[in-house]
Amino acid sequence: MPETNAQPNALTFAPDTPDALPLHIVESAALAAFLADQPENVGTWVAASGFTGALRQACVVPGTDGAPVMALAGYGSAATRARGRFWLAAAAEKLPKATYRIASGLHDDTAEVEALGWLFAGYRFDRYKAQSPLLARLVAPEGLHIARLEAIAAGEALTRDLINTPASDMGPAELEAAARTLADRFGAETTVITGDDLLAQNFPMIHAVGRAAAPHRAPRLIDIRWGGNGPTLTLVGKGVCFDTGGLNIKPGSSMGLMKKDMGGAATVLGLAHMIMARDLPVRLRVLIPAVENAISGDAFRPQDILTARNGLTVEINNTDAEGRLVLADALALGAEENPDLMISMATLTGAARVAVGPDLAPFFTDDSEIATALQNTGGVVADPVWRMPFWEPYESMIEPGIADLDNAPSGGFAGSITAALFLRRFAGTDSRYTHFDIYGWNPAAAPARTKGGTGQGARALFSALPLLLGL
Question: pLDDT digit string (tens) for 287-312?
Fold first, then answer.
């Protein structure tokens, strides 16, 4: 696991104490009415402070003795809030050190999201440099499932830590160590197949992509199993710990963020934490093909033809389309057990970013029940997702003629769809399958989301699992 200096209570709620400061959440249009019910000195202080109830504003009001008696958090208007999320967290960043109890203004339908956002705001990646902590702590609002929210926050922090760690300290071996640490914490079983053993046990594409790396960064398949009862759930996460592009080397501008190319693996590990911490009644399997797509004399080449675990042949037309190759072998393994639900998550295509930008997590599924559940829960838990099509007419685009499949169709059209169609060929026909093509990175700081690694889709999935698996 990445080292951290974070305070252990940073992503947990504060205990309720008599000295917790009342916090009022006030919309701009409701400020006058709120102040009309307060002593005159409160209105005078708020006006002098320039507090208008706008988003990102916070104000601490002193009593006659100078000690604080309440705090206000600006909540703007419905129109301004629609252009973002976790707005209470934005005010939390402005509040001084204290414990706060929400006294008014928090609506039941947003209480969970805003409380979770406050926890997220406590995240700091401080492995390499000390960071100023969040000073304001929150007493959990009444009626919320505290342990569930804290488990989600911990899973998100794990995902962020893994993505934020540079490849020098987060290669395939370190990703394996992080997976083992998580598994050991919850009593899960872990097996790992490494290096040339991948060939011996029929994982040829994982081996081909990772074989050019240095011996201490050898490719591997991480396999975690947890839970003895309930429906079967298999999570597959792309673990490309650094992607040079291989012999089709990336330009420097495209290589700069490739430490995050294991964002799919980081996200499924964060989701696995949520599932195990809450002891969901499922039989969970997590598969992570962990590789470094490096350049050496042993690198796989354009126009090589590889034979995947399930027997399909794949023509390599771009070594920079490597993520779908390692996922293919892992998906084929997962499909052999016909799980009730199989999910793959990967920072897979630039085409997905062009289509929906960095803030939406596009997903592909043939199952309308899954699509509806994810879209509904994503909205409720502020984890926006967007359905994309497995568009059958594009199947011919991934069929090169010389082999069963093409890993990088020419033309540049529908890149995220053709990648998803490629993966579907390995997911089997008896499993309910959904693929997420995530970005895994927040390009600019936002409320509750520091710049850097971020989880996408995990909260929506976690919230949807009871419906999807009949829990």
Answer: 999 999 999 999 999 999 999 999 99
Place 10 in a pLDDT band, splitting at 50, 70 and 90: low
Q: Considering 56, 250, 353, 387, which one is annotated as catalytic? A: 250
Q: Is residue 451 within 8 Å of residue 390, measured between CB atoms?
A: no
User: Does residue 250 have an active-site annotation?
Assistant: yes
Place of tokens 């803030």: 359
Q: Mention every residue, 6+ apart, whose C-beta is less than 8 A from residue 357.
A: none
Q: Is 324 a catalytic residue?
A: yes
Q: Mind listing the pLDDT tens digit for each residue in 25-39? A: 999 999 999 999 999
**Segments of 63-219 assigned E as strands:** 68-74, 98-104, 136-138, 189-194
Report the C-alpha gap between 118 and 425 in whole angstroms. Answer: 41
All domains in the chain, ordered by first residue = 21-144 (3.40.220.10), 150-469 (3.40.630.10)
Q: Which residues make Cβ contacts (< 8 Å) with residue 18, sequence separation at least 6? A: none
Q: List the structure tokens of 171.
A: 């290669």
Whose structure tokens read 């488990």?
151
Backbone angles phi and psi of 247, in degrees to 5: -65, -25
- pTM listed for this prediction: 0.96
Alpha carbons 261 and 270: distance in angstroms, whole number: 15
Selecting among 324, 432, 449, 459, the annotated active-site residue is 324
